Amino acid sequence: MRASEPGYARSVTPEHTFPEPTNTEAIRVIGRFEAGRGIPDAMRNDVRMLGVLLGQVLREAGGDDLFEDVERLRLATIQAYDEETPDAFDRAAAIAESFTVARADQVARAFTCYFHLVNLAEEHQRVRVLRERAGQPGREDAADTVATAYARLKSEVGEDEALRRLEGLRFHPVFTAHPTEARRRAVSSSIRRLSDLLTQHDAASAGGAEAHRAQRRMLEEIDTLWRTAPLRSQKPSPTDEVRTVMGVFDETLFTTVPHVYRRIDDALRGEDSGSSAPIVPAFVRVGSWVGGDRDGNPFVTASVTREASDIAADHVLRGLERAHERIGRTLTLDAEGTPPSTEVIALWERFAAAEPGIAGELATRSPDEPHRRALLVLARRIAATRIGEGELRYSGPEELLADLRSVQSSLVAAGAKRHAFGGVQHLIWQVETYGFHLTELEVRQHSQVHAKALAELEAGAAISAQTEEVLEVFRVIADIQRDRGLRAAGRYVVSFTQAASDLANVHRLAKHALGDDAPVLDVVPLFETFADLQAAPAILAEAVTFPEFRARMAETGNKLEVMLGYSDSSKDVGPVAANLALYEAQEKIAQWAQESDIELTLFHGRGGALGRGGGPANSAILAQPPHSVDGRFKLTEQGEVIFARYGEPAIAMRHIDQVAAATLLASSPTVEARTSGAAARYAEVAATMDAASRERFFSLVKAEGFAPWFATVTPLEEIGLLALGSRPARRGLSVESLEDLRAIPWVFAWTQARINLAGWFGLGTALQAVGDEALLVEAYREWPLLRTMIDNVAMSLAKTDERIARQYLALGDRDDLAALVLDELALTREWVIRLTGGDGLLVNKPVLQRAVQLRSPYVDALSLLQLRALRALRSAGDTEATGSGADAEQQRLLLLSVSGVAAGLQNTG
């Protein structure tokens, strides 16, 4: 039966995405594999429908032969998980090898499209569940929402103290442009359009004209997805990366964040919400390194930083202008029933005197509606600010906030409280959150670059182009602060801070650039390596004695920000020792800050992958040491994580609420007592795990020839050819040691090889060194740090595949290193299962387990295609120039498979 024939959809079993083959044995095998996965009916229907449409596209675009080839490989990889067919894995590998390169290319694209559609269906189901839960507080636990966390905090510390802590709440995600989003923007846009069509299909009557129309348009969009080249032809520029991130603000964050505040206020205050001043502050601040992070990226220049700020300002001012116009048009309250205050009358008169023509037009459109006119005046002034137009422009967001509060007070005095604390409050929240800058742009540079620039400047000789560029950055920061305020730019992060002088150097360079007109700077140390984390408290204690630090801290109420790097510390000593070292560093820094009466904000440089501090943020927050959070949580959000957490409004609202709740709850007496008590109780366990894991990790990464072996058994070199981001993948020209390699490709490469080593290696040995299973089970239950570590490792291990991993490891001709990896994998899996209970990984997290298990056979198909390409490239050696002939075809196939595996595993670096 053809995909286009009537009744085709009825032949598809619910769990499939590709249409069901007619072979009876295939139906039986696939049905047995997919049975009992617990897929909700609504999601099952979505997956079925999207799969039917994909199958139709494959047949129409490539003919029956393409569809059958995809089906053969799909069936074999599924059978490989069936004990009744032990030879299926070898058969699947043989099928992958049998394709021509052109056919393998098409099959890889088909499986990649499959993953995009399944990911979409899962996201759509999450949104459904969130909407169903709305207004049902009994369905979520105390750590999940700000409202319930606040109630718990109030019961522990009293209402006044709980309210004080709520007022000081701060959640500060910082978006970065690290190359971890493997999808092209065109592919992401197509998926977003499909999401909208899926929503329309949900709202339509089953079988009706609107449902049919939505399906027809989905078929068209899936065809677009299939025909869109999945790989970028060239790397994006830093400015391209800025514009990509701006899409998240335009489509989601700008409007969503005020709704988060409102939902929390509704939950806390019930009927009083919206009719009196809210108690929920604008607690979100959004930062960005996109266009500001120049550490190792020569393409981020001072002019790029200036352009990034300009682009963000243009986006937020356009957004504010539209929001003021939209809400202004609704304020059709006549002057007789809602008389304006003298401040609002004065606001109008000043504008009318300056712009009589526009004022006359507004008066005609808003007869006797003073509050409407006032907000439309504000919109006009925002537009003037955006285009830099004369006297109408605002000097800064504070001036706009003053006007908004005048309108709000006028409405309150006139009895229109619901308008004052409804739409107008929404505008106030937006301005408080985003100002005129949208993102708080941060600059990051390596400490050695600063040292080299200073040496040149103080030698008195001609300075290099790099040093001139370093100085120009400070001039740009000063310009941005003058135009948009201190929040627009001012944090300066120093990578690889190893001494207090590394921080003082920033101020010295600023003076070289501008003398006494140097910009206001909050210099943020970034401690990344194991040694630097241990040295951090002493470095900070010296830094705060510097005059520039003392003066700035006096201006800010003794505030200090410190950044901790998860990526390089994990690559430095392994994931177990790095996690323990990060906890210890936070504990010591927080204790020092408490003793010094410093308001500390720890900035967590976390990535999306588990080897880079990834995993659920809320559980990680609740595992932090006492006073290391204190109502403030700041972290980097990278690559695919940005779109996964903030790309869809309902999911963004849920994520922000969850993280804010954990941030508020982390400083409760019970949570702090539990965390500190467990850390003390299991200190010996931690010490044993630390020593054993580091020794095991070093036995691998310090082995002779490890770095080139790693580059051979993973697609590391080829990943560097992907046009993912503007930043180079490594610091040098080749990989001779781990120091040459950035943390992101270190994680990405192990992920692609289905080994995920960066997320777990050394944990099995660490737990074996402790040895006492009863003690470790108790520690897993009582010690938040260990529980978070074990749960994250379980997730990482669930995405490994030993059969696939063995084939990658075999590429390296080092049986000793391969055995070391496989032995540690088996040991770690054994211990994780023993501690979490059950007979397999993620038994205690069934939804996640189902998602991983359903994807695994299909990821295997792409991995087998990647392996055949990798073998061909490795065997070619130096006989062909890279990028020529068959080598170029294999390289393209490999890069296509990299993109598909990233989509299937839902994380890269």
From TrEMBL:
- What's an example of a GO molecular-function annotation for this chain? phosphoenolpyruvate carboxylase activity
Name of the protein described by the UniProt record: Phosphoenolpyruvate carboxylase
Describe the protein's quaternary organization and the partners it interacts with. Answer: Homotetramer.
Residues annotated as the enzyme's active site: H178, K571
Disordered: region residues: 1-21
Pfam families linked to this entry: PEPcase (PF00311)
> What species is given as this protein's source?
Microbacterium croceum
Which UniProt key words apply to this protein? Carbon dioxide fixation, Lyase, Magnesium
Q: What's the EC number here?
A: 4.1.1.31
So what family is this one in? Belongs to the PEPCase type 1 family.
Reaction(s) catalysed by this chain's protein: oxaloacetate + phosphate = phosphoenolpyruvate + hydrogencarbonate
Root EC class: lyase
Cofactor list: Mg(2+)
Query: What functional role does this protein have?
Result: Forms oxaloacetate, a four-carbon dicarboxylic acid source for the tricarboxylic acid cycle.
